[in-house]
Amino acid sequence: MQIINDIPLRGEPCCVALGFFDGTHTGHRRILTSMRSYAQQSGLLPCVFTFAQSPCAALGKSESQALRTYSQRLSDIGEISGAQLCFAVDFMKYREMSAEKFADEVLIERMNAKAVFCGFNFHFGKGAAGNTQLLRERCEMHGTDVFITEPVCTGGEPISSSRIRRMIADGKVYAANALLAKPFSIPGAVVHGKENGRTVGIPTINQPLPDGFVVPRFGAYASFAVIGGRRYRAVTNIGVRPTVSGCGVNCETHILEPVSGELYGENVVTELLWFERDERKFPDLDALAAQIHNDIDHITQLGIYEKLGA
After folding, report:
1. pLDDT for 106 beyond 70
2. Which domains does the chain have, with CATH numbers?
3. Which of 23, 109, 140, 163 has the smallest count of CB within 10 Å of its CB?
4. Within a 10 A sphere around the Cβ of 153, how many other Cβ atoms?
């Protein structure tokens, strides 16, 4: 999938999925796969229009915490949608554009869209004034079809990125992963820590949370560490490491299987599977190590790794 950071003057006739797609959850997947199927049947060029940065983050709003990094999100979009082009543009260049102008000039004139796909709650244009009804009206004036994906619900509530953020912040990652159709993951390079775990036989790798990322509930989790494409069983602590007077939110993972080679500087993806317990301060490192062993025993008894594909 080719990433383009601006819109051409006139492109090949296309069908396009619209949205930010943070998390690429099951609702997003329905939009993207619908566009993919239509492109295959119609012979139109499959495309996605999104923003490089979320509108909330660009405007400094508190609900801007991301479920996926920019590169993760675009990788998901490409894999799910089969899009040949992804227009990942700067939100600030479009924030003052009216909804009518966006539909007429961007979608119809410049992108040459013949079919448009979006979710039921899609809003666009200055002040998010445009809705799906306006989108349909403007597009159909030009003979462009609009396909609105109805909400995908679980527990009587639509699946949404904001709902999943709340679940992760509450430690409900097992349930959140079902809505994401994949484990919530924290990517990043391994950095040097204090290496206290080595002194009690529990070496760990440390990763800072990506900037602007949603912060999971502080505590211990069953996890996978994905290294070089392989998933290793692990336990992860998210928090500030109060037992060793840590500072700053950190993702600290103890891998349960042998890993060859030095991991410092390596990019590791830590997948959170199950919230085991809250973070708390222990009297010393030995007490912390004993609790981690208890966590491992309990997670193993529950069969979390087997249930999730290890």
Report:
1. yes
2. 2-157 (3.40.50.620), 183-307 (2.40.30.30)
3. 140
4. 10
Q: Rounded distance, CA 194 to CA 265, Å?
A: 16
Show the DSSP H helices in the chain as ranges. Answer: 26-42, 55-58, 70-81, 99-101, 132-141, 161-169, 173-180, 285-302, 304-307
> Alpha-carbon distance 42 to 267, whole Å?
40
Work out the percent of the chain whose per-residue pLDDT is above 70.
94
d(CA 160, CA 171): 17
Over range 214-219, report the average pLDDT.
96
Res 196 pLDDT > 70: no
User: Can you read off the two tokens belonging to residue 21?
Assistant: 């797609």
Helix (H, G, I), strand (E, B) or coil at 261: coil
pTM of the full predicted structure? 0.92
Contact 250, 241 (CB under 8 A): yes
CB atoms near residue 38 (< 10 Å): 18
- Coil, helix or strand for 246? coil
- What are the residue ranges of helices labelled H in 142-284? 161-169, 173-180
Mean predicted lDDT score pLDDT of the chain: 92
* CA torsion, ordered 116, 151, 73, 191, to nearest 10 deg: 170
